[in-house]
Write a structure and sequence with these properties.
mainly alpha
Length: 281
């Protein structure tokens, strides 16, 4: 962790405040009311959460055990394939769940038909707006955690996993597929698709965004990281607010999937760049 710099802190804070004020002035954060459409029943998020929790511990686990018995794959290879298989099983189960009542759920997930290029550009703009704000929160909470508990921020488990496969191109390719494609698809279907759409009818938009973001951050909690969870979970909470906003702003689940994809991809590219730079020294 870098030593605390008041100059960096103030610079990130000023940039974040400027972006928020400018975006508010331009009414960028204004969300148009969607066309009248029934929200989801609680059957969907409850069943989706159950699938999200059960698949890794039962279905994926047994498939990996079978692969272990039939092949000579090492532990790292098995871990990588577990990420891919778990993502594929989860994605397929969510697609099936969303298809139960003909096209009603799909229409709710993709209320507006927007061309992909304008949607992607809007998502990219949301990412650019969110980046300095997320960086400011991360910087502030990271140093506050260290000041209060003397705990350095450690890498998230997913980041450590990516670093472990960097020397192996084919494992890295699988890890990128799981992290950049499958994870955003599955997590956005669960949190923005099933959970956010169900909670809105009870709590309204703003409380729903807060609750969904809290759940999203908590799902990434790791007991092994101790107090180092605080900067990670706080950052993910803020990021999740932008994910929820992007869905409500566009009316399409593709927006938070794109935004999540960009966030994960940039993180992996940064890890790869640092790894490459360290090997050239």
């Amino acid at each position: 962790m870098q030593e605390f710099s008041l100059k960096t802190f103030l610079l990130l804070g000023i940039i974040s405040l400027f972006i928020i004020l400018l975006a508010s002035k331009l009414k960028f954060f204004k969300i148009e009311k969607k066309a009248s459409l029934e929200t989801l029943s609680f059957f969907y998020p409850l069943f989706a959460i159950m699938l999200f929790l059960i698949i890794p511990y039962f279905l994926t686990k047994h498939v990996i055990l079978l692969i272990y018995r039939l092949t000579s794959l090492n532990t790292l290879e098995l871990q990588t394939w577990a990420q891919v298989i778990n993502g594929l099983f989860t994605a397929l189960s969510f697609i099936c769940l969303a298809s139960i009542q003909k096209n009603r759920v799909w229409k709710l997930f993709f209320l507006k038909r927007i061309k992909l290029i304008p949607l992607f550009l809007l998502t990219l703009l949301i990412y650019v707006i969110s980046l300095p704000i997320i960086s400011f929160v991360d910087y502030a909470v990271e140093h506050l955690t260290y000041a209060l508990f003397g705990t350095f921020t450690i890498d998230q488990l997913a980041v450590r996993f990516i670093k472990s496969v960097l020397p192996y191109p084919y494992l890295l390719s699988l890890a990128i597929f799981a992290t950049v494609i499958l994870a955003p698809f599955c997590e956005e279907f669960l949190f923005r698709g099933f959970i956010q759409n169900s909670l809105k009818r009870l709590f309204g938009l703003i409380p729903t965004l807060l609750i969904t973001s809290l759940l999203f951050s908590l799902i990434h909690y790791s007991p092994s990281q101790g107090y180092a969870n605080l900067p990670l979970l706080t950052t993910l909470f803020v990021f999740s607010l932008f994910l929820g906003f992007s869905y409500e702003k566009t009316g399409s689940l593709l927006a938070p999937i794109f935004l999540h994809l960009i966030f994960n991809l940039v993180t992996i590219l940064r890890i790869m760049a640092l790894y490459s730079a360290s090997n050239t020294l």
